[in-house]
Amino acid sequence: MDLADLADLAPPAHLRELFATDPQRAERYVAHAGDLRIDFSKHRIDDGVLDALVELARDRGVEARRDAMFAGERINVAEDRAVGHVALRMPSGSEFRIDGDDVVPDVHDVLDRMGAFADRVRADDRITHVVNIGIGGSDLGPAMAYEALQAFRHPRIRCSFVSNVDGADIAGVLADADPASTLFVVASKTFGTIETLTNARTARAWLVDALGDAAVAEHFVAVSTNAERVAEFGIDTVNMFGFWDWVGGRYSVDSAIGLALMIAIGPAAFREFLDGFHQVDEHFRTAPLPENAPVLLALLGVWYTNGLGFATKAVLPYAQELARFPAYLQQLDMESNGKSVRLDGSRVDHDTGPIVWGEPGTNGQHAFYQLIHQGTHVVPVDLIGFAKAHHPYQQHHDLLIANLIAQSEALAFGRRNEDEPHRNFDGDRPNTVILAEQLTPSVLGQLIALYEHIVHVQGTIWGVNSYDQWGVELGKELANQVTPELTGGVDALRPDAHDASTNALIGWYRAHR
Ligand code: G6Q
User: Has this prediction a pTM greater than 0.70?
Assistant: First the structure.
């Protein structure tokens, strides 16, 4: 079974018919991973399609590549690195070898240091505000998880996240901060990212201005793999928490990059978060393919991308706390699988990663759901919800979940209206419903791990390297060239430096800045 064969598979009947002839599919097409109940019955599949997809996974070596990742092999071939984020959540005493060395003790050493530091901050009444300065993988994970786990945060400690080089970002946070009660966490794997260093310098100048140079040691810590640059920046490396080159930025929320989150929710809850990841890792590692939740969901995505030609996918959490989850998944998925060359550098001849987007329900229902229900594009959606809320307003919660369930039904079955075409709902709009008892640190870890492994399986099937991101380099490089051209003297302006349009944009900005 090959990817190209998907286009020849007979698409199954309309979901109305599939359910009418086979109501058992509502039980058969439910997967469980950790505490997650994943209903994938309202998808355009039948047993024939599903069997073919599982065969595709086998033929494309999904099991072998999964096992290679868990064996610490250098599956990130373009960068010649192991992919070890699953080691970050292994219980102490287990083993994960990279180049012969067991990395689990190192992981737990850092976790213990982070825990001791987080406890100290939580016990220190002077600190009420933690500002994480980072971008991309060093921002989206902790920012998303902090919001998701609001119910678990220390009542005295709030966190802010500064990422954008746009000064409006840090200006907004500093305007609302008090130097004496603020702790800055500068989070950067490389400690060479211009946005993060620019924001960190501005924050340091602001602090020094108020409290003097000596305050930096008390109010700045770093999270990085690069001790030299941390020291160069002026942060003592005793105040640095490390991680390793085998942790990709977008896979790093469970490393020291999660420090701000750990301070907010406490070391014990952070361990529960890691344990949630690990539960789904174990499911992914051991469950047979036809019951393996990340594998099944990955295969549905491949079916839609390559078999039916659906280019986008929406993630719609029915939980306000997960408002940043779609943005987090955008990076996880699109930076991992938005590729057009295979591992060996040859060009793919099939589509790869989908365009991922989404917003929390019910807000989206009053906005873009129109297109999802009646537009010409078919958008497979993930609906995520929880049985119990963290607030006391039960009536709100019942209404919220009623909407989630109703949307799943409406999308799949539609409603015929031959007399009034604009009121006709075709249905047959695929959706997955992911439910859990409550959004806890463990359940959040489970959800993230589920999507990480979906991305891994899809990358394997598409033959791309999910663990590099060369696509973000060109823009960075050109920005470095353009910066002095905007701000330098006349000498900085070479008429042959760029194409005519780019030169005109630079000229306009120089004249108006
Ligand atoms: C993630 C990417 C990217 C990265 C940022 C920040 O997978 O590599 O989003 O996380 O560019 O990099 P630093 O952590 O090195 O500052």
Answer: yes
